[in-house]
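Margin note: ligand = adenosine-5'-triphosphate.
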Amino acid sequence: MHDSGMPPKPDLRPAGEPFSPAAGIPDQAIEAAMKARSTQQALLVEVNAALAAAVDAEEVLSQILALLTDRIRLINAAIYLLDVERGELRCIAQAGHLNLEPFRKLQMDGPGLVAWAARSREGAYAADVSEDPRYLAVDPRAKAEYAVPLVVGSTLVGVLDIQSAHVDGIRAVTRKLIDQFASQAAMAIERSELYKKLRASEQRFRSVFEQSPLGVALCDLEGRFFETNTALTQALGYDAGELRGRSYLDITHPDDRPRSLENSNSLRAGAADHFTLDQRYVRKSGKAIWCNTMVSLVRDSAGKPAYLLLIIQDTAEQRQAEEERARLQEQLFQAQKMQALGTLAGGVAHDFNNLLGVILGYVSLVRTRLTPEDPMQETVARMEQSANRAAELTHQLLEFSRQEKPLLQPLEIGKVLSSVLTMVTQTFDRRIRVEARVPPELPWVAGDPGQLELAILNLCINARDAMREGGPLSLEASAVTLEPGLLPPDAQGPPGRYVRVVIRDSGAGMEPEVLQRVFEPFFTTKQAGKGSGLGLAMVYGIVSRHGGFIGVRSQPGRGSEFILHLPVVSPPEQSAVEEAPLAAEHGTGTVLVVDDEPLMLSFAADAARELGYEVLAAEDGARARAVASSYTGRIDIILLDMIMPGDGWAETLHALQALSPQARVIVTSGYSSVRESRRALAEGAAAFIGKPYTIDALARILKVVRPAGPGRSVNPPPSRTA
Ligand SMILES: Nc1ncnc2c1ncn2[C@@H]1O[C@H](COP(=O)(O)OP(=O)(O)OP(=O)(O)O)[C@@H](O)[C@H]1O
Ligand SMILES: [Mg+2]
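Resulting structure:
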């Protein structure tokens, strides 16, 4: 392709000088040409050569017409171009001194020799214009006129018209010369018209090429750039000059080059006509960018491979959007999985917890009936130990699976961390160097201190287990603001202010397969009996219920990092309620036990009886009310299960208090946490006991709410009885 996009214009003139006939075609030669045919031919050959090289015919034709008028002693010469659509003949070149302006356009069907020649497609000679009816008077000096149609093949292109100041001033020999010139001029005009169309078309395509939002380039068959558009140079960060002559493979990322080369080779070998690749280019700055690249082989008219057309699209944004979508999907999937597992585990754990409560209860009952020397003592102790361990596990499961939000109170995370630190530094192997970075002035978070402590402690225990050889274990806390666009990849919460807690170990780290599943309940890599796989599931549950989120980063051999984010809240106005202290012993009085779980009900009843109390039992709220109304004034303590079918436990509690205002209520629940106990106390209960409980624990709590001896004023019943 030519640089300017256009071949050079031929110039009949010697360089740097205005046109002078003497300079191009000598006077004597033209004189001779008028006389001898061979010399005429010589003139024609020269004129033709000039025409053949002409791209813009109009300019060259005007110069040739000037030469002709001068040498053949004409007064006017003009060339008209046919505009078929308008039926007009338009003057495009002219020599002579006549002002042709009024006659620049002639109608095909109008008067005059020019129109006549166009219509008839024959030369029209008026030897004496005053005698010729076809003549249209344009120049009063004109005495003779000759009009010749310009025809290419069978197409009329225009008309050549000459005029002489002498009657019969255009001789046959001159007309013959003009005829020959006309046929050359016709071809030159047609070529020039074609060229103009081509140029317009080239301009159209160039603007499409230039303005394309996609990067477009033309490369030779070796892949070397020779034309590039702006979108392409911008995407790649080079200017057009820097790219010219370089192969696109040169700037392809080394990792993607083999694939790209393979595709280019098969293109060149003719195995394919195009290929599309997602590949990286290295920008001038050195930065790699992902682009969708399409390379097509362009063939010439003979079907031979001519060059390559390269179209590239920067896909960074698209990729980013796809990655973001995949991340959100994965997050959603994880959240759904955890929820499903939670529901499942919760259901199992709840039933299991009740059964354990019964086992544990009866085991403790059996123990109280054995003398200290009884050979069964040890067996029973083992049973109790195992049941306790099982209860711990179900408790963790329940922690993980509970769906409701915990009762959160503003707290200083620093206090939670320092209590964990105390435990950790005192109990962990000395080779584990615990490093804490906890600034004194951290913002407050909303939380349940017990649960958060449990969560962080679990993370530390996992870290310890991963550091068999010891090493640094760091605990860090800081205040962070997560900006909308800058959430960490594992962030599941909204943007805002958080306290970030990072527990980082220098232990074994995790393989990606492990890393993916760490939060699943029962997922463990530890030996049977060493780990339950519930630790992180519980941590996950606790952190989620605190409105926070947890993420993990780890590499095998490089340690692990668990990152917690807890939302910041404003500091509290009042301090939390303390729980009632407990003591143990046998007692007297009447206890109403309400529980929908028959085994639990009978254990609680048996245990209370064993402790010296009179026992009444009811398996739901309605029956409890019936009992309470028939024992008005005789019930001292009500042991009420929090989760019961039928009316809510709180309603039952209030109804029973109305029926037995003197009775103290102890609420029990499988969800044994500060939160439940606080709820129970808030509803008017005197105490709370978590399930499963032993007979000793029951003894203590019964004793607390109903102290022996005179007066029941240790913990007066709340006024709320309605
Ligand atoms: N800091 C850590 N470094 C390396 N691996 C870890 C780390 N924390 C957890 N893991 C991996 O994740 C698994 C699951 O941890 P999780 O705390 O849920 O259960 P566990 O520790 O195996 O058992 P449990 O905590 O119930 O006693 C672990 O078995 C271990 O493979
Ligand atoms: Mg663990």
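The pocket of adenosine-5'-triphosphate (ligand 1) is lined by residues 462-463, 466, 505, 507-508, 510, 514, 518, 523-526, 531-537, 560 (CB under 6 Å).
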